[in-house]
Specification:
The complex is a heterotrimer of chains A (about 350), B (about 325) and C (about 475). Chain B has about 325 residues and is α/β, with parallel strands linked by helices. Chain B contains 14 helices and 14 strands. Chain B has 2 domains: about 180 residues, 3-Layer(aba) Sandwich (Rossmann fold), CATH 3.40.50; about 130 residues, 3-Layer(aba) Sandwich (Rossmann fold), CATH 3.40.50.920. The chains are: A alpha/beta (about 350), B alpha/beta (about 325), C alpha+beta (about 475).
């Protein structure tokens, strides 16, 4: 049982575990949404798990993630506890954003998770700014910004790609191309649908990656991250993926055919990884059953936590509009957790 | 203790210079702040002194660089962003409203955004409709922001540092007609929480801010010659508003004229008027008067522009009306 | 010169036989001017503010509140003053002779000279004109409008001699601070002479009044303070038992009027189906840019078309009185309004044929809301020259109505329905409405009625001309 092979298997098991956690967590979310435990807009990541799992595989613990409103997966994989995410969606005070954010606004500064952002493209400028701060403070860190193909139609994308390239900022632009901006097909909103080509036009190194193959995603992300850390400036990866479910809960999915969805489901990234691991004898059915059981227990626990959590008292409605503690001269509190560095 | 004579522009530059020296997390970013020296020459010479990392020219990408300044603030920096003029700030409105003003609350108190955004506002320089807005009242609508309007050289010199110390985003609106104003600022700190009584009188309260403060003071001089003595309040802070100073003054004079270079409908003047009615109704001895910009896009021709804006005679006339009615 | 006149229980509708004073707004010694609302009258149908037709001083009140008396009963005596003292109308309008004679018998509505000098309780005037009137101390309710549709113009207001001195009305114009000080010092605002704009009382005025102490009230202040308010007086909440009694009385009144109609009026009925495709398209176009609150409803078009048609066919617009037809001087369009809790009332849209469509819409909304809150004015109850009933909201397809005597015609509109309809030999689905006419055969024949419906059809097909 040489080290290299076992390390590889271990890494595959970890990728599988992360994808499964996201899948099972969101399946439970559907149930809870239907039971009116979760409200508001809820966007599911089911089908796209390989993207989050693969990209995050390349990150160190103090790297930053800026995400979108479809961010449960990124948050879970970056270590935001399932319990605080679930409590957030329940609108409870023990939620990661004290019930003020909901499904689209998961924040966890301790895990350097800078949020879901409900404005398409709205997280991009934040990401380059976070990277700028790292660069100015000589911190060898990386910021990953997830966004969709829809965001590439926003002006902010183009401004940010240019700025990041101009200033050689340590940003990994992770474009989750699931082929639809809500209900509008890629070809209906972009004249040039080769998204990586367009990013390359800004002087940013850009690749297309099979977003349904978690190993390919992890490999590409790792190589990009290494280059960025070496000071090569920003990288762009276009991750070709597909969401199996509607844009938001219960959209009628009129804009794409059932056949198309079925075609993509045949490329389910979890099934694909399991198959290859079995072929490599890296996992058995028993192992899988154990894994499922562990994940199920984690989610049960999260639901129980959310169920019994208290809500924020209404008297505290207007808290956190302005900071409660002024910064001492020189800024003792600092922007979030940066004061010490 | 008397300081040397300086201009509003130089005072602002000196404030930025002081901040850059005091705190190495501070940097200035914006369009043409470096080699050009700033559209209004506020940052002239700073690039040479502090270098391109800290005096950072940006592309014409308001959403990106304002958003990046929010990200940098989250990352522990203390950015000062210069937006050339308030009208360009609309290109960054998404970032200011949806991120800067919102992140603290939306994250349940996890993310504060210690950011200062400076921009030029106001009309009066024949710059026509797209460069003559006074939209600070819009920004003052937004919870999560602090809005400052320095009207004096002293405030231009001294408001920036406390703004940088504020853990939340602060927007500073510099009226374009003030940059050349000269005087001797008193050194030392000022607060960024209260309005200032710039002149005392017993008959009427004139409420102004930024570019209209000087006009209100001139109007008060003219009124004094007629025997009408005015309190002149310089709001200084447009959000959160210092209700106490306003209410106290109106409690003494029982009459108020609000001068606002914004358009009247849905304006800051409307907000102030309503607060007076809410909090000092039984002190009022005359209807509140407002002097605002005519509800037209500000025109280019000098006589038309002058007619559109609050002017000393219109403030005097409103005050007379309040005293007579 | 000092003429004594009686203020009598007015007839506020053909079916009104008696009423009660719900509230007196004046007392003996008060000065009243023609047009001032001096009493609130409780009829079977509604509580209505009634104005004086005389200028002078109230000598005595003859009937207390709550007592039901027949129409025509003298309620008060007003000692008149010469017309020269009349401060408002440039050409003094003669008081209605009928009221002066105070005939004990109920007058028939046809004899009411309403079209002659229609009293418009709430005149149409722009804010500017209202402001001007206020500045000049002119009561706009008493200004005769010479503008389009009786609109009061700036010139009308300027021609009115302002009262000799700006005075304090009972709801004095006083600053909040002045009010607070007045309460604090125990000063009655009616005793204070205002020195602000338009006589507004300011703090200093109150302080001076307080220093003068409880001195004698200046005579004009007494007089002014006693004048009843110019604005309509809110109708008080009526106890449930009274409501029940009133509903019952209204039923009785409707019963009498309808029985009289069917007994005396030989009705004939005609109906026509009108294609509203063009009218509704025009309406959509028209409404596109209007805020929701100002959008026009199809009902406004239908009413306008009926009013215009009545103007073109004057034989259907008026009254049958003493075996003869008396034409109306203008089209005052009665609008049948059903009331919550039952009952029916048909107040008039004044001069509806000449109202612009937007104004008609606004007047209709106003009329309906006031009818339902019991705040109609006397003239509105009596002046209708033809009535329209629209039961389309109920899903009714056609209304064959009963004429409201002494009128001679009643127009009915049913529900606008999408139906198959042939145009130029092609069958299509079109929005249609059935228009009906119930007419008095003593006044007109079917030919006239048919012409009326033809005009309604034509007008609804040319909505832009409405």
């Amino acid at each position: 049982m040489a080290g290299k092979k076992s390390a590889r298997a271990e890494s595959h098991r970890d990728l599988l575990r992360q994808m499964l956690r996201v899948r099972r967590f969101e399946e439970r979310c559907v149930e809870l949404y239907s039971g009116e435990k979760i409200r508001g807009f809820m966007h599911l990541y089911i089908g796209e798990e390989a993207v989050a799992a693969g990209v995050c595989h390349a990150l160190a613990t103090d790297d930053v993630v800026v995400s979108t409103y479809r961010e449960h997966g990124h948050a879970l994989i970056r270590g935001v506890p399932a319990s605080t995410i679930m409590a957030e969606m329940y609108g409870k005070v023990t939620g990661c954003s004290r019930g003020r954010g909901g499904s689209m606004h998961i924040f966890d500064v301790a895990r350097r998770f800078y949020g879901g952002n409900a404005i398409v493209g709205g997280g991009l400028p934040l990401a380059i700014g976070l990277a700028l701060a790292d660069k100015l403070r000589d911190r060898n860190r990386l910021t990953v910004c997830f966004f969709g193909d829809g965001a590439m139609a926003e002006g902010e994308f183009h401004e940010c790609l240019n700025l990041a390239a101009l200033w050689r900022l340590p940003v990994l632009f992770a474009c989750e191309n699931n082929l639809y901006a809500m209900g509008t097909a890629l070809a209906k909103s972009h004249a040039q649908t080769d998204l990586a080509l367009r990013a390359a036009g800004y002087g940013v190194a850009a690749w297309q990656v099979d977003g349904m193959n978690v190993l390919a995603v992890a490999d590409a992300a790792t190589r990009a991250a290494e280059a960025i850390r070496a000071g090569a400036g920003p990288y762009f990866v276009e991750l070709r993926t597909y969401r199996f479910r509607a844009h938001s809960m219960y959209d009628p999915d009129r804009y794409r055919s059932k056949e198309e969805i079925e075609q993509w489901k045949k490329r389910d990234p979890i099934d694909a990884l399991v198959a290859s691991m079995k072929a490599e004898r890296e996992i058995t059915n028993d192992d899988l059953a154990v894994l499922e059981k562990e994940i199920s227990a984690e989610i049960d626990q999260a639901v129980a936590f959310a169920e019994q959590a208290p809500v924020e008292p209404v008297e505290d409605l207007s808290r956190f509009v302005y900071s409660e503690t002024p910064l001492a001269s020189g800024g003792a509190r600092g922007g979030t957790v940066e004061a010490a560095s | 203790m008397s300081a040397a004579t300086t201009t509003y522009r130089e005072a602002m530059r000196e404030a930025i210079r002081e901040a850059l020296r005091r705190d190495d997390r501070v940097f200035l970013m914006g369009e043409d702040v470096g080699a050009y020296g700033g559209c209004f020459a506020v940052s002239l010479g700073l690039l040479e002194e502090f270098g391109p990392e800290r005096i950072r020219d940006t592309p014409l990408s308001e959403a990106a660089f304002v958003g990046a300044s929010i990200g940098a603030a989250l990352g522990g920096m203390r950015p000062i962003v210069e937006i050339m003029t308030v009208n360009f700030s609309l290109l960054a409105l998404d970032q200011i409203l949806n991120n800067a003003a919102t992140l603290l609350h939306m994250s349940g108190g996890q993310l504060n955004v210690p950011l200062v955004i400076r921009m030029t506002t106001g009309a009066g320089r024949q710059l026509a409709a797209q460069h003559s807005h006074s939209l600070e009242g819009w920004y003052a609508h937004i919870p999560g922001l602090r809005i400052l309007a320095p009207a004096t050289i002293e405030d231009a010199r001294n408001m920036l540092w406390p703004a940088l110390e504020d853990p939340d985003p602060v927007l500073i609106f510099e009226h374009g007609s003030l940059y050349g104003m000269s005087g001797q600022p008193r050194p030392g700190p000022v607060d960024i929480t209260s309005a200032a009584l710039r002149r005392s009188g017993k008959d009427i309260t004139l409420i102004a801010y930024g570019g209209t403060t000087g006009k209100a003071l001139a109007a008060a001089d003219a009124l004094s010659a007629e025997g009408i003595e005015a309190d002149v309040i310089d709001l200084r802070v447009l959000r959160p508003l210092d209700d106490a100073t306003i209410v106290e003054s109106v409690g003494n004079t029982h009459r108020a004229v609000i001068v606002d270079e914004g358009w009247r409908s849905g304006s800051l003047s409307a907000e102030i008027g309503t607060r007076i009615v809410e909090q000092a109704f039984y002190q009022l001895d005359a209807p509140i008067q407002r002097v605002c910009t005519a509800e037209v896009p500000v025109p280019y021709a000098r006589h038309l522009e002058e007619a559109a804006l609050p002017q000393v005679p219109s403030i005097v006339a409103a005050a007379r009306e309040a005293v007579a009615s | 010169m000092n003429e004594r006149a009686e203020f009598v229980m007015p007839s506020l509708g053909a079916d009104m036989e008696s009423g009660a004073v719900a509230e007196w707004l004046v007392k003996p010694g008060d000065r009243v001017r023609k047009g001032d609302v001096i009493a609130v009258i409780d009829t079977d149908k509604a509580t209505i503010e009634v104005e004086s037709f005389h200028t002078g001083t109230v000598e005595s009140l003859l009937v207390g509140t709550g007592r039901r008396v027949p129409v025509g009963t003298a309620l008060a005596v007003i000692v008149g003053t010469p017309p020269a003292a009349e401060p408002v109308s440039p050409e003094p309008v003669p008081a209605r002779p009928l009221r002066k004679r105070a005939r004990p018998r109920r007058p028939t509505p046809a004899r009411l000279p309403t079209p002659n000098a229609p009293h418009v309780p709430s005149p149409v005037a722009s804010p500017l004109v209202r402001h001007l009137a206020e500045q000049r101390g002119v009561d706009i309710a008493r200004v005769r409008g010479t503008g389009p549709h009786g609109r009061v113009t700036r010139a009308d207001v300027e021609h009115v001699e302002p009262p000799p001195q700006a005075k304090v009305s009972p709801r004095a114009k006083a600053s909040p601070l002045a009010r607070r000080l007045a309460a604090q010092f125990g000063v009655d605002l009616a005793d204070v002479h205002g020195t602000g704009r338009a006589g507004a009382i300011r703090a200093q005025d109150v302080r001076e009044a307080a220093e003068r102490g409880a001195g004698p009230r200046p005579p004009e202040a007494v007089e002014e303070a006693a004048r009843p308010p110019a604005e309509p007086v809110e109708v008080r909440a009526v106890p449930e038992a009274d409501l029940e009694r009133r509903r019952e009385a209204m039923r009785q009144a409707i019963a009498r009027a309808m029985a009289k109609s069917k007994r005396e009026i030989p009705h004939y009925y005609l109906s026509a189906t009108v294609d509203l495709t063009g009218a509704l398209a025009w309406l959509r176009e028209r409404n596109r840019d209007l805020p929701v609150s100002r959008r026009l409803l199809p009902a406004a078009l239908l009413l306008k078309a009926a009013a215009r048609a009545a103007a073109e066919v004057p034989r259907l617009n008026g009254f049958w009185v003493d075996d003869a037809f008396v034409p109306g001087k203008a089209v005052h369009l009665g609008v049948a309004i059903s009331l919550k809790g039952g009952g029916l009332i048909a107040p008039a849209l004044h001069d509806a044929a000449r109202l612009a469509i937007e104004d008609l819409m606004a007047a209709l909304k106003d009329l309906v809301s006031r009818a339902r809150t019991g705040r109609l004015r006397g003239a509105e109850m009596t002046e209708a020259t033809i009535t329209v009933t629209n039961l389309g909201d109920q899903g009714v397809e056609a209304v064959h109505g009963v004429i409201y005597p002494p009128q001679v015609a009643l127009v009915g509109f049913g529900k606008i329905l999408d139906r198959p309809w042939a145009v130029d030999g092609l069958l299509g689905v079109r929005p249609l409405v059935t228009v009906t006419l119930a007419a008095d055969h003593r006044a007109t024949d079917g030919y006239t009625g048919g012409r009326f419906l033809g005009i309604v059809d034509r007008l609804l097909n040319q909505p832009e001309t409405l």
